[in-house]
Amino acid sequence: MRVLFLLTVALLVGCGGAATGGGGATKSPLERNDEPIEDVIADLEPAQPEVQIPYVGKMYNLDGVETGLIRFDACGCGYVRSYMEIDSERLDVKVLFPGVPTDFSRFDGESELLRIVGTFYDEGEQAFGETTTSSGNVGRFNLTIDREGDQTAGCKICHVENDPFYPLPETHIPVAPVAPNCLECHDTV
Ligand code: HEC
Ligand code: HEC
User: Fold this and answer.
1) How many separate domains does the chain show?
2) What pLDDT does residue 4 have?
3) Which atom of ligand 2 is nearest to the CA of 179?
4) Residue with the nearest Cα to atom 14 of ligand 2?
5) 81 lines ligand 1 (CB under 6 A)
6) Cβ neighbourhood burial of 170 (10 Å; 0-12, 13-18, 19+)
7) Is the pLDDT of residue 94 over 80?
8) What residues does 82 pair with on adjacent strands?
9) Atom 10, ligand 1: which residue's CA is nearest?
10) 69 belongs to a structural domain
11) CATH (domain of 48)
């Protein structure tokens, strides 16, 4: 009798899962492009990020085709910032945490051209989210924490390398031919 009861429960739970997400929870977030972002995010275990460490990743359209690069870096302005390259467009978007001060797992952000929304998951090792351009194009992205890479790569993209969003002041110590470690002098978030 007890075995039968357990079986019934298992069947009910199975049906419930299929009805809400097409059994989607077992697919990776990026394989769930056909589902609303809210459902995908709701199925991920939210986690606190290590916002001091860069996250690097890729962007995709809803057919799963790669469309560009994305990264998150802590910045000396006191915010996490997202750098994106979509086609030949380069974007800088400030990342905001609506749940602050207690919850850093959910994030959003907005620039003139694009909105992002997403969450950190996988114990903070990864982030997943959606981008919507002002013309309504929707894309998805996945980011992975980058402990091994150059921790100042993002600083250089936005402040030093060709056509930076916010160039260094002319009085700044030289960053060529070899850029010094920005983090020796600058605090980030
Ligand atoms: C995606 C682009 C981006 C990245 C990555 C980035 N920054 Fe910034 N940073 C900016 C912009 C833009 C500003 C100008 C302030 C603003 O618009 O909010 C800024 C401001 C600053 C400032 C001036 C703050 C002030 O208020 O005087 C410092 C210092 C700074 N960043 C250092 C860094 C360092 C160090 C890193 C890497 C660890 C970094 N930034 C990563 C875009 C970026
Ligand atoms: C040896 C220390 C040192 C290092 C290393 C250093 N900076 Fe700076 N940085 C400063 C000082 C001091 C200032 C403010 C004085 C000035 O304008 O030169 C400054 C100013 C800035 C500003 C402008 C702040 C403002 O108020 O507008 C930015 C942006 C910045 N640094 C980014 C960087 C980045 C990116 C790197 C790494 C490639 C870096 N710095 C490496 C010392 C340093």
Assistant:
1) 1
2) 41
3) 38
4) 172
5) yes
6) exposed
7) yes
8) 72, 93
9) 166
10) yes
11) 2.40.128.120
